[in-house]
Amino acid sequence: MSDKIAYSRHGDIAVLTVQNPPVNALSQAVRQGLWDGMDRAEADDGVKAVLIVGEGRAFFAGADITEFGKPPMEPYLPVLINRIEASPLLVVASMHGVSLGGGLEVALGCHYRIAVPSARVGLPEVHLGLIPGAGGTQRMPRLTGVEAALDVMTTGRQIKADEAAKLGLIDEVRDGDPKQNGIDYTQSLLDAGAPRRPVSEMETPAAIDWDGAFETILSRGRGQISPAWCVRAVQAGVEKPFAEGLAAERKIFMDLMETDQRQGMIHAFFSERAVGNLPELKGVEPRALQHIGVIGGGTMGAGIATSALLSGFQVTLLEMTPEAGEAARKRIAGNLSGALKRGKISQDKHDAILNNILSVVTNYEALSDVDLVIEAVFEEMSVKKTVFAELDRVCKKGAILASNTSYLDVNEIAASTSRPEDVIGLHFFSPAHVMKLLEIVVADKTAPDVVATGFELGKRMSKISVRAGVCDGFIGNRILSTYRTAADHMILDGASPYEIDKALEAFGFAMGPFAVADLAGLDIGWAVRKRKRAEGIDPAARDSSYADKLCEDGHFGQKTGKGYYDYSAGAKARVPNPDVMPLIEAERAQQGISPREFTAEEIVRRYMAAMVNESAKVVGEGIARRPLDVDMTLLFGYGFPRYRGGPLKWADIVGLPELLADMQEYRKEDPHFWQIAPLLEQLVAEGKTFDDLNKAAAA
C-alpha cells in the first residue's frame, strides 16, 4: 500500500486514514493507496465496513495541482470512486476541513457521510473552466435535486456542513475528533443493520427546463461556458442510465479541457498563487504590524480603514475637522454593518471595533505610535508632500509611511521625507474593503523589509498583492490610460461609447470602459487630462474635448445622475445620455473626421491590442516583473474576464505574431499611438510567448 494511506482495524471497521499533508490532495499515490486499502479491507476477515478519514487539515481539498497539465495516471479518480461505491462493505466518509472537487466526489462515492460542524464542501471546477469530472454531476443531483445541485456546481461556492446536511449531502453533523466520530457513526450504522446505500442506485431526480437553465446560466456567466455545461451533464444523468450519464459527464469534461477558457482559468489559478512569491523577499522578515493609521476618511480612506479593522488591526483615522471625522466614522460604520449582515463579523465584534479598536482623531500627534500609516488624501503632489512632512515629523522610527496614490511619483513623495527607505506606495482599489487588488509600489530607496511588510499587509487583508515599479499610473492605471485612449480614438473615428461598451461586455468585461468611467466619476479622468495637458501633450497625439464638456456641465457619471449614460431610473437602468452623441459629432466635425463603422470584432481587437502593447511595455521596462503580474492586476482590479486569463495570457492564446501584424497595420494610421513594444517584437522574432517569461522567472 502507498505510504499516503494508513490502514488500521477497529473491531469490524477498517479505517483508511489519508496522510498527504498539507491538505490531502488526491495525488496518484493517494488514489493508489485508497484502491489498495479497499482491496485489503475486503480481504480482511471480519471487516464489515470501511471508514475513510483525512489526517491533518482536511478530508480531501481536491486534485493535486502538481499534476495539472501532465498526462493522467492510473488509477483514474472516476474509476476509483466507482470502485469504492461498488464495494460489498459499508463505506463511510468522515469529513472535516474542506472536501472540494474530487474530495467531495470521493465522499459522494461512499455510502454514508458524517462531518464536523466546521467542515465545508463544494464543487469548484467551474473556476478552472471545467465541470466536475468524477461523477459529481451524476451523484449530487440524486441527493439534493437538480436545482440545488446546479446552484452548487455553477457557482463553485463552498457550503458549510449545516447547509450541506439540509441539502442531503451529509447524513450527520457531529462535533468531535473526525476519526472517532467516523468510527462511532460507522459502528452505529452496523449496529442498526444499515444497508449499503450507493448514490448511483438512488432514484433519479425530476427534470427541469434544461434549455432554459442552460441559457440562463450561460448569460449569467458573461461568456464563460463551463457553468452552463454543468446543466448538460446533469441532464444526461437524469435522462440516461447512470453509466451512460457518467460517460456523458466525462466527454463534456474532456472537451472543456481543450478550450481556451480552461487555459485562461488554469493560468489565473496558478498566477494568483505565484503573484506574491517574489525571490527578492525570500528570507526578508516584515516589520511588526498591528496599529495602522489612515489619513483621510472619504470613500477610499474609510474603505482602507474598514479593511484593516476587519483584518484584526487597530486603526487610528485622521481627519482635519470633527465634522469630517464623524462623517468618516459613519462611512466605516456603514461598511461594518454590511459585513455584519453578511455574517463576516459577529455583533460583539462589530461593537468592539466601533467602540474600542477604531479611533478617529484630528491631530497628527495621535499617529506617533502607529506601525504603518496610509494616506488617502486628494491626488495632488503638493497635498501629498504636506502630509508626508507631518508624518515624517510625528511618526516613530521604523514606522512605514505609505501613499495610496493612483498615479503620482512615489520617489518624489519619498524624497520629501528624511526617511525615503520607509516610504512605499500602497494603491488600494475602491471600495477598498471589497476589491481584492493591492498594488505595492516600490520606490528606488524603499527598504526590502518595508516591501515585505506591504505584502504581509496584503496577505492579512486577503488581497491579491502585485509588486509595481514607479511610473505614471504604475501597472494598472498606466495600461488603463492607454486602452481607454484607444477607445477614445475609435469614438473619434466613428464608434459610439455604447457600441464599445456592448462589444467589450460581450467579450466578458463586467462593464465597458464608458460605464466604468461613469461609475468611477468622470471628474477623475478630467483631472488627469488637465494635469497632462498642463505638463504638455505631444503635438502628434490625438486629443479630444467632448468629455470635458460633459464635466463642465456638471455631469460626472453615476454620482450626479448623468455621464455617458443617464441614471435617472437607477444605476442598473442605465440608458444612453442623449447629450453625448451631439458633443462627439461636433468634435468630429471640428477635427475634420469622416466617421466610419466599426464591427464588434474590430472594437475588441483594437482595444485588446492597445492593452497588450502597453502591458508589454510595462513588463519590458520592469514596472511589472512578470507578465503574470499584469494579468493579475487586470483580473482583480479592472474587471478583465477571468476565463481569458488576463491580457497577456489572452495574447498568447490568440497568437502574438497575428496580434503584432494587426498593430503594424494600425501604426500606418497613427504612428504616434501605435508605438509597438520592443518586448513584443522580440518575443515574436524568437518564437516565444509571454508565458515563457513567466516560466523563466519561476525557474
Count the DSSP helices.
Answer: 29
Q: Give the full name of the CATH homologous superfamily of the largest domain.
A: 2-enoyl-CoA Hydratase, Chain A, domain 1
How is the main sheet built?
Answer: 8 strands, mixed
Q: What is the CA-atom radius of gyration, in angstroms?
A: 28 Å
For the secondary structure, the number of strands is 19
What is the straight-line distance between the termini? 34 Å
Q: What share of the residues does DSSP label as strand, in percent? A: 5-15%
Which architecture of the largest domain would the CATH scheme give at its second level? Answer: Alpha-Beta Complex
CATH topology value of the largest domain:
2-enoyl-CoA Hydratase, Chain A, domain 1
Strand order of the largest sheet: 12-11-10-13-14-15-16-17
| Unreliably modeled segments | none
User: How many structural domains can be distinguished in the coordinates?
Assistant: 3
Shape descriptor reads globular
Helix % is: 40-55%
Question: Tell me, what is the CATH class of the largest domain?
Answer: Alpha Beta
Label the structural class: alpha/beta
Mean pLDDT: 95
